[in-house]
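[worker-b] picked up task from shared queue
[worker-b] task type: protein-ligand structure
[worker-b] ligand name resolved to magnesium ion; SMILES cross-checked against name lookup, match
[worker-b] sequence length check passed
[worker-b] input payload:
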Amino acid sequence: MITAKNLSLQYPDGTIALNEINLHIKAGELVYITGPSGSGKTSLIKLLMGIEKPTAGQLEVLSHSMNRIDVKNRMFLRQYMGPVFQELKLINGRTVLDNVILGMRFLPIPKQQWKTLATDALEKVKLSHKILSYAENLSWGEKQRVAIARAIVRRPSLIIADEPTGNLDRKNAINILELLNSLRQENTSVIITTHATHLIDSKLVDQFIQIAAGQLEAKSMEEF
Amino acid sequence: MKAITANIGYFFKETFTILKLNKLSNILSLLSITLAFFLLSLVVSTWLISTEMVEVLQQEAEINVFLSEEADDSSRYEMAESFLEIEGIQASRVVTEAEALERMENILGEESEVLTYFDENPFESFVEVKVDFEQVETVKESVSAYEDVRYVRDHQEVLDQIRNISALQRFLGTLFIVAAGTATLVIISHIIRQGIYHNRQQINTLLLLGAPNFFVALPFVLSGLVLTLAGGLVASLLTRFTVGLGYAQLVTPIPFIPLPPQELLVRNTTALILGLSIFLGLSGSIMGIRSSRKEESL
Ligand SMILES: Nc1ncnc2c1ncn2[C@@H]1O[C@H](COP(=O)(O)OP(=O)(O)O)[C@@H](O)[C@H]1O
Ligand SMILES: [Mg+2]
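[worker-b] inference finished, payload out:
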């Protein structure tokens, strides 16, 4: 579902964020991308979402070549993704329910189902009691759950969470990772980046991809 | 498109949010657009009026003969009678004050109640003389020779003047359409660009979630449209009111003036203004969207 061959990304200012990365992620896998801050984790996600284009090497995501993808196909590709952004990117001034529904409005999901699906997703992230709260009035941990609900309500093939533990205390961080881990399904891969490796429950993980300064360091659980 | 019909409520809510976000500059642009449309519709109305006048006056060669104050009713009728003997005159009849008033009431239609503001009938009686088109000049001379004739009004003169005015108005009208159009386009595209800038984070989020361009753009197009349409509507109402006032002003000093029916005039200018506001709202928004920088970030 995701294949990278000698994948590199160099920013216009010359920074080499990723240097000849090779990886392969199969459908239904739970994958952690780890590495210190500045190692290139977010850059890899930008490539996966088509925000940046590879400057060298090949990247294929859900059968699309990210080297050549056009704007329209990139849009369709993103509709198969459930992103949980590091900054969450919820819409303020909108309720929790509206925020979750916004993830579906332009997908081929009938309008009659929007509310039910959103309510179910919010139940799954244990936020049923906050359904009509405004996004800006939630704690970070609650916002994180809304963002996750918005991602899963789309029934994506690929859930991507960038530093989901970043702004959380230890207890909340572990809870969020547990929630994200549980989202992996037969046809839904989950990719999580984090520098907080000590919080990962490694029994569940199919693949660790460890990056340091844009280079792949270790790939297997044993090495990790 | 299913994604449009399913989201109509959402689009209007978004539009409203966009407009609210930048209230002051939206109000100011609404005012400027209204003013531009209002001036435009005034120029267009007067242009339509003068065109109608030329058309009507062209068809009839007619002179109106106003008699001196001393002339009494019977001498008016005598004179009208005697005019018939002059060569080139086809018909001649006295239009009484009451009839002049009645004509005006017909022209004004619903608005004729303005005439009730006059304490007494503001019109004076005159002799209406139908003339062979080619003989207007000689007839005028003969009629002017009568002792009691105070003043002869010749439509031909008026006609020439109106033609000139009409040409000027056509020029001004075109100029105003271009000027008001350009100004509105600039204002709207700027406002939309501003709105897009203020909402850049939300737009970014939507695009990262795979929203189609139309989904992201539609609320902005709608907010441009709302601004121009609101401006157009207010301008149309102001025009309706002003035309009503203007008709009352115009008809009092020049009772024979052939004005187009007021309803028709108002309807035509309103249609033009609203049509223009839709066109300009759409194109201005699209210009604003096109010229906005698109950048994606995480
Ligand atoms: N838009 C950019 N332009 C230039 N350099 C960037 C840009 N974004 C990130 N970088 C640099 O690329 C490297 C990798 O960054 P990033 O992928 O954000 O790392 P991580 O997410 O692992 O913290 C860092 O050195 C960072 O400063
Ligand atoms: Mg990062």
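[worker-b] attaching auto-annotations
[worker-b] Chain B touches chain A at residues 2-3, 6-7, 10, 17, 201-202, 204-213, 215, 296-298 (CB under 8 Å).
[worker-b] releasing lock
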